[in-house]
Design goal:
This protein is an alpha/beta fold and about 375 residues long. It has helices at about 15-30, 75-85, 100-105, 120-125, 130-145, 155-160, 185-190, 215-225, 240-250, 265-270, 285-295, 305-310, 320-335, 335-350, 355-365, and strands at about 1-5, 35-40, 45-50, 50-60, 90, 110-115, 150, 170, 200-205, 230-235, 255-260, 275-280, 300, 315-320. Strands 3-4-2-1-5-6-7-8 form an 8-stranded mixed sheet, with helices on both faces. It has a 6-stranded parallel sheet with strand order 11-10-9-12-13-14, sandwiched between helices. It starts with a strand and ends in a 17-residue tail after the last helix.
Length: about 375
């Protein structure tokens, strides 16, 4: 079966979506299917990789978003899709690429939309007062033009289910070999902190919807309470310079590492921190948080997001902003270290990529070539 996947907002330094696409594609290939990924780039290109063929089509760079590009030339994209002759189409952007579902229906190709973002949540943060009605309208059109909707958590599925759309829930996964407690690196820790310090980690894009200021505010509250904490920030984004200035003015011990391109360095970083912070309120899954758990590091997450579902008993969900996050961190630190690190790892082991790949392939009807996708075929 040839599964053609198409996504926007995939950049050289992008995080969770790029990771998910890579692991799913590699899983499709390993299962004997032909995976193709179509993404925007500076120029047209094609490259055979472990996740199958990656086709790049020219797409303009969006200003102020850290290098993200989008596929806007529908005619060119449609031509490429016809050339690729897919058996299934998997779409990973329900705003700018929703039209692909209509193309697939006209071509007689079953299509699946994967909801990697919360449209409801983004409009709640940045949209008009009528944002919920706007989200309902867009989600309704998405459901009508695709044979199936896949969400990674109950939280993500809720915005579809409230308008009567049935969805299939398939969690994402984590690389349990790369991200492991054994990656802990005392030498790395010594570069940031004194032996008595608590090392906090914010790992993620520094953009408004991720609420990175909550991590700085948590650090400030802990320091005021006498907790010798330091914060390590791994990630790039439009807020980085501003956050550095704010941390400097407040005299906060924050180490900004920028984007880390070496996955082994990321794995060591996640295993070395004492507590990770994932404060984004519109996360639909939270791969970075799951990678921290796999590394044996408990996580404090936003109670507004899907992450409480993912972290289970291996972390704490915080309401509000800085003081609430500081209290959640202290709750975690009150647990014996060996106990909290074991709980984190055990929770992550519930999410192997093999299970995610199997769930996505089942949604695609793998082994039943050309049978139309239907929401009653093992849905959520």
């Amino acid at each position: 079966m040839r599964i053609v996947r198409i996504a926007n907002y995939v950049a050289p330094r992008s995080g969770g979506l790029k990771t998910a696409l890579r692991h799913l594609g590699a899983g499709y290939q390993a299962a004997g299917h032909d995976a193709v990924l179509v993404i925007p780039g500076e120029r047209a290109d094609a490259d055979m990789t472990e996740q199958g063929l990656v086709v790049t089509l020219p797409g303009p760079r969006l200003p102020g978003l850290g290098g993200y590009r989008v596929l806007l030339d529908r005619r060119r994209v449609a031509e490429k899709l016809r050339e690729l002759r897919p058996d299934r189409v998997e779409v990973s952007d329900r705003t700018t690429l929703r039209w692909v579902g209509g193309w697939a229906r006209d071509a007689g190709v079953p299509s699946m939309m994967v909801s990697h973002e919360s449209l409801d949540g983004l409009l709640r943060l940045f949209g008009p007062a009528s944002g919920r009605r706007v989200a309902d309208a867009i989600n309704g059109r998405t459901a009508r033009t695709h044979d199936q909707i896949v969400c990674t958590t109950r939280w993500a599925a809720a915005e579809f289910e409230r308008i009567g759309v049935e969805v299939r829930r398939v969690p994402l996964g984590v690389d349990l070999e790369r991200f492991a407690p054994a990656r802990r690196d005392p030498g790395m820790r010594d570069r940031w902190a004194n032996p008595e310090d608590v090392v906090l980690l914010h790992c993620g894009r520094l953009s408004p919807e991720k609420k990175p200021r909550r991590s700085l505010a948590a650090l400030a509250a802990l320091r005021r309470a006498g907790v010798p904490a330091v914060l390590v920030v791994a990630g790039a984004g439009p807020l980085r310079n501003r956050l550095q200035e704010e941390a400097g003015r407040a005299g906060l011990p924050v180490r900004f590492l920028g984007h880390l391109s070496d996955p082994d360095e990321v794995a060591k970083l996640l295993a070395t921190a004492d507590v990770a912070i994932a404060p984004g309120p519109v996360e639909t899954f939270g791969l970075a948080a799951l990678e921290a758990l796999a590394s044996g590091t408990p996580v404090v997450v936003s109670a507004e997001s899907a992450l409480p579902e993912v972290i289970g008993p291996a972390g704490v969900a915080a309401h509000g902003d800085g003081p609430e996050y500081a209290a959640a961190i202290r709750e975690i630190l009150a647990m014996p270290e060996a106990e909290r690190r074991l709980a984190a790892r055990l929770q992550a082991e519930r999410f192997p990529w093999s299970a995610s790949v199997a769930g996505f392939l089942e949604a695609h009807g793998a082994g039943r070539d050309h049978e139309p996708l239907g929401r009653d075929a093992g849905g959520a």
